[in-house]
Amino acid sequence: MLLCFSSFSQNITGDWKGNIEVNNQKIPIEFHFYKDSLGQLDGKWDSPSQGAMGLYFTTINAKDDSLNLTIAEIKGSYEGELIFNDSIKGMWHQGNVSLPLNFKKSIINNEITKENSYPNEREISITSAGESKIYGTLLSKNNHQKLAIIIAGSGPTDRDGNNPLGDKANSYKMLAHALDSQNIATFRYDKRGLGKSMGGDFNESKIVFDDYIKDAENIFDYLHDTLGFKNIYFIGHSEGSLIGMVASQKKNVKGYISIAGAGRPIDEVIEEQVNNQPLPDSLKNEITFIFNELKKGKEVNNIPVSLNSLFRKSVQPYIISWLKYTPAIEIRKLICPILILQGSCDIQVKVVDAEALHNGNNKSKIDIIPLMTHTLKNADAGCKDENMKTYMDPSLPLNLKMVDDIVNFIKK
Predict the structure, then answer these.
(1) 3-class SS at 223?
(2) Strands 59-63 and 52-56
(3) C-beta of residue 351 within 8 angstroms of C-beta of residue 383
(4) Which pLDDT score is estimated for 71?
(5) Chain centroid to CA 351: how far?
(6) What is the pTM of this model?
(7) Which of 222, 248, 225 is nearest to 235 (CA)?
(8) Of all helices (H) and strands (E), which one includes residue 291?
(9) For residue 213, which of 190, 243, 237 has the smallest C-alpha distance?
(10) Is domain 118-265+325-411 given the CATH code 3.40.50.1820 in the classification?
(11) Which regions of the chain carry the CATH code 3.40.50.1820?
């Protein structure tokens, strides 16, 4: 996946800053390269003004003085040449557009220190259904540890809990590090079609919800059968709650943890979110109509432009497959220990969802955590989240009660 050769891979480690000029406006771009625990070259990129932070490169090829990068998630690539060890001159390609993009190396490199502070953290890839490669981060000292598989929420949310739509809370990465401090191993991963798991032949219209469930099952099998971890738990956040829930029905997990997981069918959750927004009634009625058709297994044409991001034609097969699941029914099928966690200040998933899950399986344990938002961080009093800081500020700590609940559940 990542290729590095010659001395360039030594010179390139660090932080690089440049600008793309579009319509006489400069858009800052940052590349961060570092060595992982195995000494392999890895990296991420940021576009701060566009709210895209900490996104992984799909491939890195550094040979002699040449650098070639691909970012499948946005269908972008970069070709550059190292100049005097402190500059890179090159071109950015995306779609039919090619633009000059040159970099200067930053003097202070905090990224390397941050990445190397967890020497037991390493990337692995797992082959899943259809020969798809799922890439993720394993943080473990040995296979005698208990291990939690962290499953990300909906949308383009990566293994660390960030996405190109602006969320950069780093929640899953912080959770993995918090569990590591309590001697609990973790595996967090980019879901199929996202981040490094974006294969070159990815086709969104071919993805269904069961693909994500099967990926979780195959990850469990690899960690259990190949790497030898015997005490494995699923932690599912938001959409990942249902994925982990169904996968837990099929695998011998030691326990299942839902964080901010819906207890109702997804159409009810989304319609509630929409009804709380100042949208025209005609648009709200259109959403109800579309969901009703999708629940019948019928795809809908002529989606309004304002709803295209939610109901675009290529994602409708996925939504149809998702709608067949009712979480409160699925959780009844679990025989393993269950922990349900929900923040009182979550604006996306409500306390009623956690209660529905709890009522669906009376053997479950539930904790409604004061002030916690959907990103697992605390809002201020009265659930005030000024400037959506719990979504945008990676320096904010996780809710400690949530971490304690998870640790106590796994260690019991």
Answers:
(1) helix
(2) unpaired
(3) no
(4) 85
(5) 23
(6) 0.78
(7) 248
(8) helix 281-295
(9) 243
(10) yes
(11) 118-265+325-411
Q: Are strands 3-4 and 59-63 parallel, antiparallel or unpaired?
A: parallel
The full DSSP string for 334-386 is: --S-EEEEEETT-SSS-HHHHHHHHHH-TT-EEEEETTB-TTSBB-BGGGB-G
What per-residue confidence (pLDDT) applies to 39?
Answer: 65
Smallest Cα–Cα separation from 373: which of 396, 339, 355?
Answer: 396
- Burial readout 97-119 (b: 16 or more C-beta within 10 A, e: otherwise): eeeebbbebeeebebeeebeeee
Longest Cα pair distance anywhere in the chain, in angstroms? 65
Report CA-CA distances (Å) from 134 to 105, 128, 216, 412: 31, 7, 10, 31
Q: Which residues contact 342 (CB under 8 A, 6 or more apart)?
A: 259, 260, 349, 350, 351, 353, 354, 366, 367, 368, 369, 372
Contact 54, 143 (CB under 8 A): no
**Tokens at residue 357, please?**
């899950």
Beta bridge partners of 348: none
Residue where the block lists tokens 């500059």: 87
Compute the distance between CA of residue 17 and CA of residue 247 in angstroms, rounded to an integer: 42
Closest CA to 222 of 86, 353, 344, 129: 129
How do residues 360-382 score in pLDDT, each as one tens digit? 999 999 999 999 999 999 999 99
Token pair 């490669």: residue: 133
What DSSP assignment string belongs to 99-143?
EE-EEEE-S--HHHHHHHT-TTEEEEEEE-GGG-EEEEEEE-S-T
- Assign 3-state DSSP to the chain and report helix, strand, coil percentages, each to 5: 35, 30, 35
Which is the CATH superfamily of the domain at 3-111? Answer: Quinohemoprotein amine dehydrogenase alpha subunit, domain 2 (2.40.128.120)
CATH 2.40.128.120, the chain: domain bounds: 3-111
Residue 97 · residue 1 · CB < 8 Å: no
Point out the residues of the chain with pLDDT beneath 70. Answer: 1-10, 36-39, 107-117, 200
Angle value at C-alpha 192, between 345 and 128, nearest 5 degrees: 130
Tokens representing 255? 């326990």
Nearest to 101 by CA among 69, 54, 64: 69
